[in-house]
Amino acid sequence: MIARCAIGSLLILSLGCANQRTDFASERPALPYSKAVLSGNTLYVAGHLGVDPATDSPPKAATDEARMMLDAFSATITRAGLAMDDLVQVQVFCSDNSLYDSFNDIYRQYFDRRLPARTFITSGTLLRGCRFEIAGTAIKP
């Protein structure tokens, strides 16, 4: 009986932890979404763009935009206490499929050990005239 109670209590405690949620708000309070949400051990990262904060538009070079986007994405993940290597899945939206190879050259530089599963989607026009947007899911080790 004591063992059943202890196991039941342990299960309730771990379920309580798994249901905890932490929201990581955008720096722009007017935007109606969180940059990321940590639920249990899973971090859901919203779409990130590569825009210059001063102009709110992408830089002229696609590679600079990719770096800015991945820097912002990585900063959000780090803010939640995880790393890029904790990503298990990402979606990359790109307005121009001819940028695939140059994007990959930049993308590889953001991972040390493991690459997440990835979907690269040729999209239509993206917000603010961007060429890239990235979203993903990470698991806390």
Q: TL;DR of this structure?
A:
The chain is an alpha+beta fold. Helices cover about 30% and strands about 30% of the residues. The chain has a 6-stranded mixed β-sheet, with helices on one face.
How are the elements arranged and paired?
Elements: H1 2-18, E1 21-25, E2 34-39, E3 42-49, H2 62-79, E4 87-94, H3 100-107, E5 117-122, E6 132-139
Parallel strand pairs: 4-5
Antiparallel strand pairs: 1-2, 2-3, 3-6, 4-6
- Rounded Rg: 18 Å
Q: Return the average pLDDT rounded to an integer.
A: 88
CATH superfamily placement: RutC-like
Distance separating the two termini:
34 Å
Which architecture would the CATH scheme give at its second level?
2-Layer Sandwich
Number of domains: 1
What would the principal axes of the Cα set say about the shape? Answer: globular
Kindly report the CATH topology: 60s Ribosomal Protein L30, Chain: A
In the predicted model, the low-confidence regions spanning at least 5 consecutive residues are 1-16
CATH level 1 class label: Alpha Beta
The tally of helices reads 3
| Range of helix content | 25-40%
Strand order of the largest sheet: 1-2-3-6-4-5
How much of the sequence is in beta strands?
25-35%
Number of strands: 6
List the helices and strands in order: HEEEHEHEE
The biggest beta sheet reads: 6 strands, mixed
